[in-house]
Amino acid sequence: MNLLRCTTHCEMSAMNESQKRLVPHPIPYQGSKRALAPLISKFVPSEIEVWYEPFAGSAAMTLWAAANDIAHRYVIGDSLEPICELWKQIVFFPDIATLKYAEIWNGQAANDHSYFNQIRDRYNKFRDPIDLLYLICRCVKNAVRFNRNGAFTQSVDKRRLGMKPEKMKFAIFGASSLLKGRTEIRCGDWQTTVNDASKNDFVYMDPPYQGTSVGKDKRYAHQITAETLAKGLEGLNEKNLRFALSYDGMTGEKSYGPPLPEHLGLVRLMLHAGTSSQATLSGRNERTIESLYLSAGLGEPYDGVISRTANSDQHSLNFVAPIQA
């Protein structure tokens, strides 16, 4: 892995070794694939010309790929325009993004929760991307919620103040250092984002799960149905593109949706994503299992849960607890 690069040599020298080894993540989305990246990476092909992540959000897998020089170029996209604008600020204008975030963060007081609501109202009116970054960092469990009009609806987390400006500065400049000069940011439908992908490229997708994009628990402004997703995946297959998709899964007895259609010819693997934080808060000890779908040739079927081996090298895998397909 490349070492995390920062604004100046002096700042770089001031970082301790543990900070250097971290992949920077300036957007702390709940559900981000940051923790799963080393496990997912075992099924990523070599020799990638362009890496695409069309449901970027926090772009955790792109940051991991860039930190490990997996591809020559990167394309990240999202259907929510303020997220795309936020990534443009982070990648191309880290100084401005850092200063503005610090200004917003320093404007709050520990016990004044109305400040969050003021920033939320301002964001919903003007859609400023750095306002959005503050809201993501400060909202309940970093669990973003938007209504169908793109308005941010999640409430403030009263237990904490969000990522401190000093930590955010390292994260923003680290991400900019990894991505600037070799990354294109696109806003719009995911199929449009990957329309120019070729057989030498790779597409990683992390769309909203069925359980969080339809029904009562809608978390995203732009929902996507399983039928629409499957139709798009058929198009990727027709172009012989290499891709991986994190889509459905389960926590305890709760399922996030049925498997994708078998006619797509995808290999479905089950990955252990850790203990559910929501279940822990409710006094339950439940593990979260997520599906990883692979296009032809990227993996073999396995009727169990794949996890990282505890207390071992990050490249080791452990196959445990067979489950029903």
What would your notes on this structure say?
By secondary structure, the chain is of the alpha/beta class. 34% of the residues lie in helices and 18% in strands. Residues 1-20, 211-215, 217-221, 279-285, 310-316 and 319-325 have low confidence and may be disordered.
Task: Give the overall shape.
Answer: globular
Number of helices: 13
Could you give a short account of the major beta sheet? 10 strands, mixed
Radius of gyration: 19 Å
Keywords:
325 residues, 13 helices, 10 strands, disordered N terminus
Write the layout of secondary structure elements.
Elements: H1 9-14, H2 17-21, H3 37-40, E1 48-53, H4 60-67, E2 71-78, H5 81-92, H6 94-106, H7 114-126, H8 129-138, H9 165-179, E3 183-187, H10 190-193, E4 202-205, H11 210-213, H12 226-238, E5 242-251, E6 254-255, E7 267-275, H13 277-281, E8 287-294, E9 305-308, E10 317-320
Helix pairs in contact: 5-6, 5-8, 6-8, 6-9, 7-8
Concise overview:
The protein is of the alpha/beta class. The protein has helices at residues 9-14, 17-21, 37-40, 60-67, 81-92, 94-106, 114-126, 129-138, 165-179, 190-193, 210-213, 226-238, 277-281, and strands at residues 48-53, 71-78, 183-187, 202-205, 242-251, 254-255, 267-275, 287-294, 305-308, 317-320. Helix content is 34%, strand content 18%.
